[in-house]
Amino acid sequence: MHTSLKSPINFSLKAALCGFLFISACTSTRQQAQSMYLKSDLEVFEFSKINPKNRIQGAAYVDSVQFANKHHTNGLNIFGNTPDGCSKIDIKSSFQNDSLIVTIISTKERDQMCTMALTPFRYFVPFETLGVRTENQPSLKYIQVNQINVKPNL
Q: Fewer Cβ within 10 Å of end Cβ, the chain: N or C?
């Protein structure tokens, strides 16, 4: 007498094992990629050159923010994603008491055809770009980037 239960069970176990291995590999790869960028030089942020009258602004998703010093310049390493392949990021900053409030937004040209997939970004943003002069950096107690709080190591 032959039972056919072994075949579906074996298939289910194999499928579950493959799924687990795939998820583990993706998580490990993301952690390795982020640590690789921390060790190497990140691209230095520059404001987008899109004409303000012909652009659309939206959300930029910030995954992590870290205090950094690059070539004797204090700033932030910012990692995240834009909502599509065409968007660039722009930065707005303001001060409230002893805190620096930074807002990262995505911007793209109006009527531009784009891939609709999250696109990673990683930038080093010098404090001077955020409007913080060197002599004022030690007085910063908190930095907030899109709701992520960072305590500066100045």
A: N
Whole-number Å distance between alpha carbons of 100 and 144:
6
Cα(32)–Cα(34) distance, integer angstroms = 6
Query: In percent, how much of the chain has pLDDT > 90?
Result: 32
| Distance, CA of 13 to CA of 8 (rounded, Å) | 9
Query: Which structural domain, as residue segments, surrounds residue 21?
Result: 1-40
Contacts of 5 (CB under 8 A, 6+ apart): none
Maximum alpha-carbon separation in the chain: 85
Q: Do 126 and 53 fall within a single domain?
A: yes
Same domain membership, residue 50 and residue 16 = no
Q: What is the mean pLDDT of residues 96-110?
A: 91
Residues 18 and 86 in one domain: no
